[in-house]
Design goal:
Aminopeptidase; 7-stranded mixed beta sheet; alpha+beta; 5 helices; 169 residues
Length: 169
């Protein structure tokens, strides 16, 4: 498995991973039409192109893909720097058939290493049990709960954090 910065050529693969992983992770939590509309909007070609362009202009690469020989892009991670101490994990998704194989862990470790992360926050859908297990298994702790409404759907979000102490690199 190879972890590398995303490229514009990866957009179709990232869209595919997003579509399949969202359908897998959020079925039973949100209606299919909500998932489809959200993915269409959040992972549009234009939106991803802008994210990749911003990332390419930054010496710290915060949008990474996991690539498997013979399978292509199987997952991605995207974070942003909030301040000198904190980064926020915006999205980390893997194809359902590759979840549990260590790709998410490798993406997370590589992003933390590349960006000298000291503290990382992640917002997680409260009903997404597999995501919550992933973060808790990596030593993240829930620091607050927030109820939010998106497109008419009210949801409970859990904010997780992990303090890495001094920067690693």
């Amino acid at each position: 498995m190879h972890i590398r910065p995303v490229k514009a050529d990866d957009i179709p693969a990232v869209q595919s991973v997003a579509r399949l992983s969202w359908a897998h992770a959020y079925s039973g939590i949100y209606p299919p039409e909500y998932i489809e509309a959200f993915v269409e909007r959040a992972y549009s070609f234009q939106s991803l192109e802008q994210s990749i362009s911003r990332d390419e202009g930054d010496e710290e690469r915060k949008f990474l893909v996991a690539e498997l020989e013979g399978a292509g892009v199987i997952g991605f991670l995207h974070m942003r720097k909030v301040d000198e101490r904190t980064h926020e994990l915006l999205r980390i998704y893997l194809l359902p058939e590759h979840q549990g194989e260590g790709a998410g862990t490798r993406l997370l470790h590589e992003a933390v290493r590349r960006n000298a992360v000291r503290r990382l926050e992640a917002w997680v859908e409260g009903q997404n049990a597999s995501a919550r297990r992933f973060y808790e298994g990596k030593g993240f702790r829930a620091i607050r709960y927030e109820t939010q409404t998106f497109s008419g759907y009210t949801t409970q979000l859990v904010v997780y954090e992990k303090d890495y102490g001094r920067a690693i690199g």
